[in-house]
Sequence to fold (293 residues):
Amino acid sequence: MIQFEPATKKASKARIALCGPSGSGKTYTGLAIATALSDRVAVIDTERGSASKYVGLNGWQFDTISPDKFSPLSLVEAFGVAAGAGYGCVLVDSLSHYWMGTDGMLEQVDRRSGANKFTSGWKAVGPEEKQMIDAMLTYPGHVIATLRTKTEYVIEENERGKKEPRKVGMKPIQRDGIEYEFDLIGDLDHESRLTISKSRISSLAGQVIAKPGVDLAATIADWLADGIDVPSIADYRQRAVDAGTRDELLAILKEIDSAHLSNAPTVDDDGRPTVLRAFIVARGQALTEPGAA
Fold:
């Protein structure tokens, strides 16, 4: 039976997208915000180690991986490993590679396409992309994603009254509608000014911030903390570990389905990446095996 309940604001984690052309400071800004939001930061560096050039700058320390292939499910696995290791913030630099990079969405579609690309390639890859988005949205920490933008030059008049070209960012290189998945989207220009183009934080809506960093992160953290506490993925996982009956596990499954956490990234008992529902189902199967307690 459908029953409405009073709405409540839940304490949550940041989902931030930083968009901009090459050289606009996406990596720097992402690290500035990430290291201010958490003292344990993991960077998924698709830019051939560019983030590591900033180690030690401003005291920044973080761990990193540098994948050379970018299938959607590989990002799901990376989030699972990061969740298992307890990183408080993950910076994906950049998410655009999982669209147009080696083994990314576009290559996956072409590889799996038959005569009709829509009914074959996209239909086959779509569920994997959904798993990737779900993993990003349900990660048990903050997630910051940089997005490359298509660039073009516009002719503007400078302060001396002379016409000159200026590089500007255009549409983010990712699937249409990706912006709906984030709480905060900022567009960086070539002077590293961040224009907030979407924000669920009313005080930030429409702001233009020069060289954003610690102050912006503090505003985001205050807004996120203003809500009721809810069970974390780690809480659900531990409850599944402690459960002694299949009925207890079924009850947990109903809770995570209701909370839209079925595809939340975690690790199995051997430390391999998986998702929360699969972990709980595996615990139930273990209870029914001969010799199980």
Remarks:
- The chain is about 35% helix and 25% strand.
- The longest helix spans residues 118-138.
- The mean pLDDT is 88.
- The radius of gyration is 21 Å.
